[in-house]
User: Which sequence fits this backbone?
């Protein structure tokens, strides 16, 4: 019984024991602590002293450039080196020139004023005026008479709405016959032209106007009337 009580007691004592840190490794070394304190204090360290930064020169870049090392010389040397490595450079091609950063000749007022004057500009303007040609408007040509009825003129000459009978039509199954006959034409305009050419609107020899309104195959004159009124 005493042995059983002694074992848990020893376990509790072992768990409460504080583990001492290992000295001399990692960030706990005296050398690291001394170096860190010296850096925080702004002082040097014997093992690895802190070097002060170098002074920045206050002279312009042009004064620091040595002979033959200017920006233009470096650019020319680089262009010459590139040209010598190309197939054309191997044959003795010249180095590429450095692009000129000055303004163009057309933007230079002094250069342009030496070549041009007010008199020369006036002469050039007068020359342009002489070659300028004004085309006068002419009358719109009229539609030629090709022997076919003009459905525009016919639309403007009528006033009855679509479906209102004006002319008499006689026969049986006029609507069914008109549907078959109208299917032969690609558009109502073509059917109206054929209708007028065959004696319409008084006569409907082709069977295209079963209701007698004077308009074949559902042709509508309203768009032509509206265009004239507007």
Assistant:
């Amino acid at each position: 019984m005493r042995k059983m009580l002694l074992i848990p007691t020893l376990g509790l004592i072992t768990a409460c024991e504080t583990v001492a840190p290992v000295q001399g490794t990692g960030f706990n070394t005296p050398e690291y602590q001394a170096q860190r304190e010296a850096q925080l204090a702004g002082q040097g360290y014997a093992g690895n002293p802190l070097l002060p930064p170098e002074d920045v020169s206050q002279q312009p870049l042009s004064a620091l450039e040595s002979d033959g090392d200017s920006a233009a010389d470096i650019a020319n040397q680089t262009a010459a080196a590139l040209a010598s490595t190309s197939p054309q450079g191997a044959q003795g091609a010249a180095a590429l020139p450095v692009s000129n950063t000055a303004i163009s000749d057309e933007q230079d007022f002094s250069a342009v004023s030496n070549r041009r004057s007010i008199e020369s500009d006036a002469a050039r303007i007068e020359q342009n005026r002489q070659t300028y040609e004004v085309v006068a408007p002419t009358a719109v040509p009229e539609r030629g008479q090709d022997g076919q009825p003009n459905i525009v003129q016919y639309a403007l000459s009528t006033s009855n709405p679509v479906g209102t009978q004006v002319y008499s039509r006689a026969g049986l199954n006029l609507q069914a016959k008109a549907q078959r006959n109208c299917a032969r034409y690609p558009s109502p305009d073509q059917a109206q032209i054929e209708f007028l050419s065959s004696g319409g609107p008084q006569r409907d020899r082709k069977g295209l106007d079963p209701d007698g309104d004077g308009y074949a195959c559902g042709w509508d004159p309203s768009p032509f009337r509206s265009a004239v009124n507007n």
In short: Residues 151-229 form one domain.
